[in-house]
Specification:
With 62 residues, this protein is an alpha+beta fold. It has 2 helices and 2 strands. Strand 1 and strand 2 form a beta hairpin. The two termini are 24 Å apart.
């Protein structure tokens, strides 16, 4: 695990772990991604993937 603001090297790509978001902001982003995923457009599949990824990280019942 890498602390917030620290860098780590993975597969030749430099990753930076961001500080956690407040839950209200995470829910706002999730709603935006879900709305985008529900539209018939070129970003729908990617928005759906990110919505699922984010939803898996939000604690249940929050």
């Amino acid at each position: 695990m890498v602390a917030a603001g620290r860098h780590r090297q993975t597969g030749g790509i430099l990753h930076r772990r961001c500080a956690p978001w407040p839950l209200d902001e995470a829910h706002d982003l999730l709603r935006l991604l879900q709305a985008t995923a529900g539209e018939d457009g070129p970003l729908s599949p990617e928005a759906d993937r990110w919505a699922q990824e984010l939803a898996a990280r939000i604690p249940p019942g929050s």
